[in-house]
Amino acid sequence: MKIKALDTYFLSAPLPQPVRTSTSTISRVSELIVKLTTDAGLVGIGEAHGPFLSQGGPEGMRAVGQILERVTPLVVGQDPSGIERIWQDLFALTYTSVRGIPTLAHQRRQLVTAISAIDIALWDLMGKATQRPVHALLGGALRSRVPAYVTGFYYRDGERPDDLRREAAMYLEHGYRTVKVKVAGLPPEADAERVGVIRKAVGDDVAIMLDANQGWDLPSAVRAARLCEPYNIFWLEDPMPWYDERHALRRLKADVDYLIIDSTWAGGLTVWRKAAVMAELYQVPLAAHHDPQIHVHAVAASPTGFILESFADHTRDPLWFELFRERPKIVDGHMAVPDTPGLGLELRPETLEKYGVKLG
Ligand SMILES: [Mg+2]
What we know:
Elements: E1 3-20, E2 25-38, E3 43-49, H1 51-54, H2 57-71, H3 83-92, H4 108-130, H5 134-137, E4 145-152, H6 161-173, E5 178-182, H7 188-202, E6 207-211, H8 218-228, E7 233-237, H9 245-251, E8 259-261, H10 263-266, H11 269-281, E9 286-288, H12 292-301, E10 305-310, H13 318-322, E11 330-331, E12 334-336, H14 349-355, E13 356-358
Parallel strand pairs: 4-5, 4-10, 5-6, 6-7, 8-9, 9-10
Antiparallel strand pairs: 1-2, 1-13, 2-3, 4-12, 11-12
Helix pairs in contact: 3-4, 6-7, 7-8
Magnesium ion (MG) is lined by residues 211, 213, 237-238.
């Protein structure tokens, strides 16, 4: 079996109301979709996190189109079962030229995003070719369902405490037992007050995670962590900027208790698999960022696989609600591990039409 075609689409959907984290305003969601077609007529679908691609506007999109065009010869014509070999070829372009294709060292982030979608499409393809779900190819599911938390409580213009209470009620109604709250966008005292309102609204049995999106410096992180302590915080995510993570974390007297990986921007399920081996070695629970419909396979098959991220609010991620014919459901705060071949996802062509442009 050989790969005959690589088609890519870029999807971008506006949010009805922009939402904010401490360090960014989200007014659209976007995804890169890769379709790989084989000479046997099988189609593998891969998805990658879009924002790194769309940041550059139309110029940035053109650059992504060119990257995909450049890497196509390393994918088309190949046997899709050589997933690691294809990954190694593509990744080598981050620092060197490969079989006459010039290096893409200056466009690493866009390249790794493209690799993510291609790699995920290869896993989907091999699942379909062997009639096995992707988690079976990753070593087999170690659990039949995977916990999922909901990310919400973004900052919104004109927000009142009652809005937070309403949002909390919606998540409880969906059956969630773990919620993630955005922090670091307000002074620590005001953030702690917000967290207090949410704690009261969800009760004592729901776990609360905080995500600072790298918005604090060390003194603010220390102050905020102390102020939020009475509300029993499960994890504190990305307290400070990435560039001094290890040293600053030590001074915050914090540790890496959980590792979050996003295979849709870090290089695909092949990278997840490598991270899962390290996480097992160091006994660090592995959580997924975004795209639970893909990560459910990875978390289920990882020895320290722990939890998925999800959105329950259509206004936060319209693509998640519209992209697939059948969306895996989250029931009682868990997603069932699918047993359909590949990723078990079928794109809705009308959504591709509505939000997408074809890149190549
Ligand atoms: Mg985060």
